[in-house]
């Protein structure tokens, strides 16, 4: 469902791109036809939307804190482990697949937990000096890809490794194998996993070469060697190459993602002395925004240009493209908004003020149907239990902005319109001051809702997993 770029810098990796499971093929006409297919699918899906929204409310009703896992092992995950890997640190990423929950701590330790036994299966770090930076579940071959740096390399290069989920289930994380060994992924190099197209993009800064690999079998498909390429943006079926800015314009190329064929080359005019806030590609639409200028939406098929006033559309901190619905989400100052490609605001949310001002997308989950957004949010200001660091987990309808469910620290029964019950095991209401009576759960509900640093929703199990600054993982289920 998501594409993720992991950079070889010390900085955190870039945000999540949420995309529909649809592949475009062919030339410039091919990807336009693919857009039409997506639109037809969207029309068909509207028939089931009224049912799915009521179903969503029911899905999250009576949700409760059910389990607690701890990623911290004071002894370390193996002998001779690096000292900082023994320290307790916050969860930065959670991935779940096949009844296994993977939790990655900022220290670089990644633990796997079984939802069947609720025991820790193993640590994914297969060597004492391995610091895991990010995770990616490859549904094409049911494996987990870890992206790591190593002390032996002075933490300078990204190394990728794939391990079948079945091996991890057996407690054999070392049964995997290395990927992209021929690539030198040192800063500013990166690796990007593109789930929608089934591709992997790598950039070796050492020789200024981009390479595209097949996500199914990791074979290299083609390479792009051009030192003037400043950035590559991936969209269903295509890639946008952004070249070094020239005087008054930026050269652009659209390539087929399948074989690298150039589909279109063109220049986009820019204001000479203003920095470019962003250039983004969405199928046939090009979005360009410069500092203190209007948003420009260019249709690359016919050069039709739409402008949105800079007072209406201000530069967001992050995007999430909703390919299924032909819309995009923007994040700015803790708020979320939904736009269409005519530059119109489609949705603003009733009750969805994000907790983190920097839009950490590891605290946001978009369902595969792209109808719900689940986020860690600020609790209501009039909630007497909202003091301190306790927030709430909000579930909202993307198309209407309506809050459908909310997990919050409360002693009373939840309301129907925008709350799910938070209950102790057995179904009784829980007081936030009372600890949930379960062998593994040491946190109160209020404590479990404090300082959440990562969030994931398992759609198959209908469970939400959250991680916090203490390295704990909490399971919310009904």
Task: Explain how this protein is built.
Pfam families: DUF7899 (PF25463). It comes from Datura stramonium (Jimsonweed). This is Transducin/WD40 repeat-like superfamily protein. This protein is mainly β and 478 residues long. The chain contains 4 helices and 34 strands. It has helices at 28-45, 49-59, 165-169, 445-448, and strands at 2-7, 17-18, 64-70, 91-97, 100-105, 110-114, 120-123, 130-138, 143-150, 159-164, 177-179, 190-194, 199-204, 209-214, 220-225, 229-235, 238-243, 249-256, 262-269, 276-282, 285-290, 295-299, 304-308, 318-322, 327-332, 335-340, 345-348, 364-366, 372-377, 392-397, 403-407, 452-458, 463-468, 472-477. A 6-stranded antiparallel β-sheet has the order 2-1-12-13-14-15, with no helix packed on it. It has a 4-stranded antiparallel β-sheet with strand order 3-34-33-32, with no helix packed on it. The longest helix is centred in the N-terminal third of the chain and has 18 residues, at 28-45. The model is unreliable at 10-51, 411-417 and 419-438 (pLDDT under 50).
